[in-house]
């Protein structure tokens, strides 16, 4: 009980430590909360450890090539280094990966069934619940605490972008909802693992060639279709208490003709937060994505995303130095007022709430 009270006080103190413009050190530590780094190879680089020590790191995204039998202990050491930094505030780093099931698993141990196979099983809800439990137990053994899954897309035709690798639970919003609710509930049941509903408002209508990792993608769906098909599983996921949502990098002209969802105030604030009532953390898809080639450097993209309401930027590309420079760019944008200080403070609070819950 005492320790619970103590950690609550520590967290509140951190939240109330408003960004003091003259304090470079505290601002870079706040900026660190918003940045997920990537790296190459199976050894966490010393630059990542020093970023944890000085607080300019918010977490990691692991890919298959990062993972071996030493991964769990390396993550444990990184969390310990971070816990000794001034940024810690009782809230651990977010260690994220894509564990969708089937072919899209970065860690060994399942779920072996793909989303599509779960949707086609005799009792999709029960099968999805087991898959969620499976992810939680794999993550516990690897010291990983955020799954960048489930995919909420409602696929449209056999072999399209999501169906090609069996990443969609089904071709109706009813079937997808039936699966994602229990998957999220069971994955998050221990309180130590958080799920991410992606890619808002949905990539189910993308054709196989429409891969936002590679090229700009425009999905010309009507707002009515988006509301009555693609966004329906988000209502279920939010009711199930999903902790994070990842907006997509596709453009949906029905609501915003200029900015892809993840750079769009209309999508993040008007649709996700206001219309659907999501109160959790937003996390970006890969900031190096080809879909964003017309939106500047990764630092400019990160600032635009945060201005639109994105809480966390995933700095893919396997260069920890890119993570450092994105954190510096965010700190500069807060200092100069390009990022609104009230929105920044609210975003810091959402991230710290999520992280302290995972401690
Ligand atoms: C934190 O550490 C990283 C990695 O060594 C370094 O690049 C960065 O400049 C440091 N930042 C601060 C504010 O000390
Ligand atoms: C979904 O796929 C099934 C075949 O697996 C098909 O019969 C059905 O018409 C499809 N539904 C929609 C809404 O496309």
From TrEMBL:
Q: What is this protein called?
A: Glycoside hydrolase family 3 N-terminal domain-containing protein
Which Gene3D superfamilies has this protein been placed in?
A: Glycoside hydrolase, family 3, N-terminal domain (3.20.20.300)
Any single GO BP term = peptidoglycan turnover
What Pfam families does the record tag this protein with?
Glyco_hydro_3 (PF00933)
Q: Where is the Glycoside hydrolase family 3 N-terminal domain?
A: 51-354
UniProt keyword Magnesium present: no
Q: Where is the signal peptide?
A: 1-17
Record bears the keyword Signal: yes
Q: Which GO terms describe its molecular function?
A: hydrolase activity, hydrolyzing O-glycosyl compounds
Keyword annotations of the record = Glycoprotein, Glycosidase, Hydrolase, Signal
- Organism, as annotated: Gomphillus americanus
At the top level, the lineage of the source is Eukaryota
Protein family according to the UniProt entry: Belongs to the glycosyl hydrolase 3 family.
């Amino acid at each position: 009980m005492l320790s619970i009270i103590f950690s609550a006080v520590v967290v509140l103190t951190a939240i109330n430590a408003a960004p003091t413009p003259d304090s470079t050190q505290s601002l870079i530590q706040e900026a660190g909360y918003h940045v997920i780094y990537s790296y190459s190879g199976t050894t966490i680089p010393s630059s990542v450890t020093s970023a944890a020590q000085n607080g300019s790191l918010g977490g990691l995204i692991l890919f298959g090539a990062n993972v071996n039998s030493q991964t769990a202990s390396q993550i444990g050491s990184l969390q310990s280094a971070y816990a000794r930094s001034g940024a810690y505030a009782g809230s651990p780093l977010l260690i994220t990966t894509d564990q969708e099931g089937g072919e899209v698993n970065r860690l060994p141990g399942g779920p072996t069934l793909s989303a599509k196979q779960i949707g086609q099983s005799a009792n999709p809800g029960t099968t999805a619940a087991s898959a969620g439990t499976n992810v939680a137990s794999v993550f516990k053994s690897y010291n990983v605490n955020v799954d960048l899954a489930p995919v909420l897309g409602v696929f449209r035709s056999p072999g399209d972008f999501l169906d090609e690798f069996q990443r969609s639970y089904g071709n109706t919003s009813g079937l997808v909802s039936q699966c994602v609710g229990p998957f999220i509930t069971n994955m998050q049941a221990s309180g130590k693992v958080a799920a991410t509903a992606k890619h808002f408002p949905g990539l189910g209508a993308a054709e196989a060639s429409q891969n936002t990792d590679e090229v700009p993608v425009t999905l010309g769906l009507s707002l009515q279709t988006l509301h009555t098909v693609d966004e329906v599983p988000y209502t279920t996921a939010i009711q199930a208490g999903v902790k994070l949502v990842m907006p997509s990098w596709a453009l949906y002209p029905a609501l915003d003709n200029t900015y892809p969802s993840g750079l769009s105030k209309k999508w993040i604030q008007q649709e996700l937060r206001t219309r659907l009532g999501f109160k959790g953390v937003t996390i970006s898809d890969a900031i190096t994505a080809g879909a964003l080639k017309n939106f500047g450097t990764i630092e400019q993209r990160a600032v635009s995303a945060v201005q639109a309401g994105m809480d966390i930027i995933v700095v893919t590309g396997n260069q920890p130095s890119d993570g450092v420079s994105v954190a510096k760019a965010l700190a500069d944008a807060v200092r100069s007022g390009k990022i609104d200080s009230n929105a920044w403070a609210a975003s810091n609070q959402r991230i710290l709430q999520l992280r302290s819950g995972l401690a």
